[in-house]
Amino acid sequence: MPKNVKTDPDFFGFEELLTEGERSELAEIREIVQREIKPLANEAWDRAEFPFEAIETFAKTGIAGFQYPEYGDGRTRRPLFNGFLSIELNKADPSLAVASGVHTGLAMGSIYGGGDQRQRDRWMPDMVAWNKIGAFGLTEPEGGSDVAGGMRTTARRENDEWVLNGAKRWIGNGTFADLVVIWARDESDGNVKGFVVEKDTPGFHTSKIEGKIALRSVQNADISLNEVRVPEENRLQNIETFRDTAKVLAKTRGNVAWQALGVAIRAYELAREYAVDREQFGRPIGGFQMIQDLLVKMLGNITAMFGMVTRLAQKMADGTAGADHAALAKSFTTTKMRECVAWARELFGGNGIVLDYEVAKFFADAEAVYSFEGSREMNTLIVGKSITGHSAFT
């Protein structure tokens, strides 16, 4: 390889904004993830199975406590550091990164933000240690983008219990989770409330969604709730309306923007390495103009994505990030990610559609990342309302 070739996809050096201590910790986790998580990824993805060995590795890194220092190691990590951590997890495998994010962000975030102190103390320590795995039950078979107003899962109070009825769909970790946060509409006041439903509760049934082409290792579930009885002590005490649910989603939506960046980066890395090594017409294809054009367009997208998510992390740290900031970041980065993985797959030619070269997995997984945590269109409407003052939601 010629000298002075810049192989780092972080072309403008955004990682330099981390402290020396943060870079050191990130390097340690990167090494663990590459050594213990990445080797599990392709085979598990091909089988559409979850590699439970990964849970032990996640527990060893302590990542479940990074956003909740009082239940972790007591050290506060900046949103910027957590963003770079997300990049590393997604470069290793988007499926396992999603499974981790559902547990640490959606499930734990709901309990931490929506529960009272007693509930946090009850569930958070076991979840930080990965002794209990969490899931987040919001989306329904007939309600995705309109679930706020169209939620059909109901809850009615009977003395000191709540009775839940309905169905949920696309619930990550749902087939094996110990604790599932179920969102249901209170029959008495019409407001959405949150309930922690424990595995093996009578009337609570899960089944794996088969035939996925993306995030195949994530065990998404269909959940049915038939007269499921949950004690009042399992109702998240600080959740009163769907607006409280939206606060959890606003935080995790920002993480999806970092996830999209991680997927794009790995696709670029694979494409750049292939372009340097693959020879056609007697020379590496990286020496052809059209190949360089694809790589530079990918790098430009990645650099723009870095700028947006870095500023979002800074605004999260100082408390000025709004739901509209997270929505714009999610919409923009997932769109640019989708372009990057398509260009990467194109660069590989026929080799880009087989798992052996890995880029096919990232190409497929990007479709799920593009769609969940609010579609591009729905996030566009959140930002559109913010900048015009008019709601275009119907």
UniProtKB/TrEMBL annotation:
Pfam families: Acyl-CoA_dh_1, Acyl-CoA_dh_M, Acyl-CoA_dh_N. Its cofactor is FAD. Residues 22-129 form the Acyl-CoA dehydrogenase/oxidase N-terminal domain. Keywords: FAD, Flavoprotein, Oxidoreductase. GO terms for molecular function: flavin adenine dinucleotide binding; glutaryl-CoA dehydrogenase activity. InterPro entries: ACX4-like, Acyl-CoA_DH_CS, Acyl-CoA_Oxase/DH_mid-dom, Acyl-CoA_Oxase/DH_mid-dom_sf, AcylCo_DH-like_C, AcylCo_DH/oxidase_C, AcylCoA_DH/ox_N, AcylCoA_DH/ox_N_sf. SUPFAM superfamilies: Acyl-CoA dehydrogenase C-terminal domain-like, Acyl-CoA dehydrogenase NM domain-like. Residues 135-228 form the Acyl-CoA oxidase/dehydrogenase middle domain. Residues 245-387 form the Acyl-CoA dehydrogenase/oxidase C-terminal domain. Its EC number is 1.3.8.6. It comes from the Bacteria. Belongs to the acyl-CoA dehydrogenase family. This is Glutaryl-CoA dehydrogenase. It comes from Actinopolyspora biskrensis.
